[in-house]
UniProtKB/TrEMBL annotation:
Pfam families: Cas_Cas2CT1978. InterPro entries: CRISPR-assoc_prot_Cas2_sub. This is Type I-E CRISPR-associated endoribonuclease Cas2e. The lineage of its organism: Bacteria, Pseudomonadati, Pseudomonadota, Alphaproteobacteria, Rhodobacterales. It comes from Rhodalgimonas zhirmunskyi. It comes from the Bacteria.
Length: 97
């Protein structure tokens, strides 16, 4: 069960209430869960995606360990340009899609 991180920026208070019910808020707008399963992560992201689609305010970034991805990390975003991690000759870079 990999570490999961969600970063929020300029979102409504409902996100904070929901995310703190399933994750630890280590800094304003930064939520972590050390052992969130893929199923729980999918359900949490589904809820925030539904809210974001109806509200269209702010941005959210989800990061988790995925051994099949470059750098063993996967990124999902809402409200900001989509990003991907790329391996450039052993150096990991974040690239806007």
């Amino acid at each position: 069960m990999p570490l999961t991180i969600i970063v929020t920026r300029d979102v409504q208070a409902r996100y904070r209430g929901f995310l703190t019910s399933v994750m630890l808020e280590i800094s304003p707008g930064v939520y972590v869960a050390p052992d969130m399963t893929a199923g729980v992560r999918g359900r949490v992201w589904g809820v925030v995606c539904d809210w974001w689609e109806s509200l269209r305010q702010g941005s959210l970034t989800l990061v988790w360990r995925d051994t099949s991805a470059a750098g063993n990390l996967r990124i999902e975003t809402l409200g900001s340009p989509p990003k991907a991690i790329v391996d450039a000759d052993g150096i990991l870079l974040v690239k806007r899609k």
